[in-house]
Design a protein that fits this description.
By secondary structure, the protein is mostly beta strands. The chain contains one helix and ten strands. Strand 7 and strand 8 form a beta hairpin.
Length: 147
């Protein structure tokens, strides 16, 4: 099922203190195997959907943690300070976009991963669909370019 241009996606953290609303299809959905995402999730990867900030709304008090990416960009991880749920990530290399953690959405079943990045860090036990294009690091791609 394709995601329609006006379809609204809602989500919340584990305790419900932080709520998000997204409109339309994401720019891209990605699995990320970087070590930071592994630490963030406590799993082998994170899965997020990138949206333009114009398609995104958030309500509730959030906490932030900033770090420097391998490419030298500042990455901000946004989370619920009450329950610790990861909400989204922002990257200074793509300032007009947010990447929302798919696990917080009420229904993420229509979202299909289009890429796996930082595959060089993939754990043998973290099995992925071989049909999803995989990159050893972060590909040189911008949201305004076709995938």
């Amino acid at each position: 099922m394709a995601i329609g241009e006006s379809q609204i996606h809602r989500g919340a953290c584990l305790c419900g203190s932080v709520r998000v609303e997204l409109v339309g299809p994401p720019v891209i959905v990605a699995h990320c195997h970087c070590k930071d995402c592994q630490r963030l999730t406590g799993a082998g990867h994170s899965t997020g959907a990138m949206f333009s900030i114009s398609q995104f709304r958030i309500d509730g008090k959030v906490g932030e943690h900033k770090l420097t990416s391998e490419a030298g960009n500042e990455v901000t991880r946004v989370f619920c300070p009450a329950c610790g749920s990861p909400i989204l990530g922002r990257n200074t290399g793509m300032p007009d976009f947010v990447t929302v953690s798919l696990g917080i959405l009420e229904d993420s079943s229509a979202f299909e991963p289009g890429v796996a990045v930082f595959a060089r860090n993939r754990k043998a036990w973290d099995v992925m669909d071989d049909a999803v294009p995989s990159f050893e690091g972060q590909p040189q791609w911008r949201p305004d370019e076709p995938t």
